[in-house]
Request: fold
Amino acid sequence: MTKMMIGAAQIGGIQKAETREEVVARMIALMDEAAAKGVKFLAYPEMTLTTFFPRFYVEDRAEFDHWFEKEMPNAAVQPLFDKAKEYGMGFTFGYCELTPEGQHFNTSIIVSPEGEIMLKYRKTHLPGHAEFEEERSHQHLEKRYFLPGDTGFNVVRSQGVIMGMSICNDRRWPESWRVMGLQGVQLVSIGYNTPSQNNLSADEGLAKRLYHHELSVCAGAYQNSTYAMAVAKCGTEDGNHMIGGSIIVDPDGFVIAKAEGEGDELLVAEADFDKCAFGKSTVFNFAAHRRTEHYGRIVSQTGVEEPSE
Ligand code: ING
Reply:
């Protein structure tokens, strides 16, 4: 498989009161549109089934277990799996996972056109904080509700393509991309929910957040010679705004499709995975050019260690 129509299904705001069934119906409407345009692999956002609940604080975390899926697939999402199988379409989407052992993860999966879960990824880089922070106008409590992922960044060959996943904040960390690049990844799908305010710095603003989002994805794709689809859940959720800006990026780092609005919106592009080979065999021929003997700090050090004088 070298050429494939790929699609990014941006989802507008999901209100707290919205049911999973209502959300799945919106997802299927975008899948119908994608099928009509010949899409064979469709990417949905992070936490596609629910509102971005980590903006809310709750003392007893068990009260939020209803935001999590205890099995996958389940009755609520089965219609999506069935529709994809009918269309012969692979897809990926993010959801909140509660394991039988009681662990909570921010998870995404890649599903084959036959309906098989080919790969599961659990979000590694959790932004925000674990306790309520008075000084914040907006809470971002992912560290309260999720464990750091335990899967690492693996890839899978599905539909003849080497596919991988990141989730939201992961796209800002070059390590995420490089670990998949070292496995020959050709398509990275990244769902995201990025609030337009969460007190990182007052002057963050929408334009800067959109710029940093696009910069991270274009850089990651170019520096690992891979396609990337970054798909937003965006717009307004119960009065809280999240950035849009879903994009499909080619292995040269160029944006080849971009969302116009902040609602449910399908992006489509033709991927030619042979295009990944040029970068991987020249500028980013890792075997020929990397000098791992000088990269030790990247793994041995977590934080910054400045020179003593
Ligand atoms: N959200 C945001 C993201 O990484 C964030 C957190 C917002 C980081 C703005 C930096 C600036 O896109 C999630 N869910 O990771």
Observations:
- The first strand starts at residue 3 and ends at 10.
- Residues 84 and 149 are 27 Å apart (CA to CA).
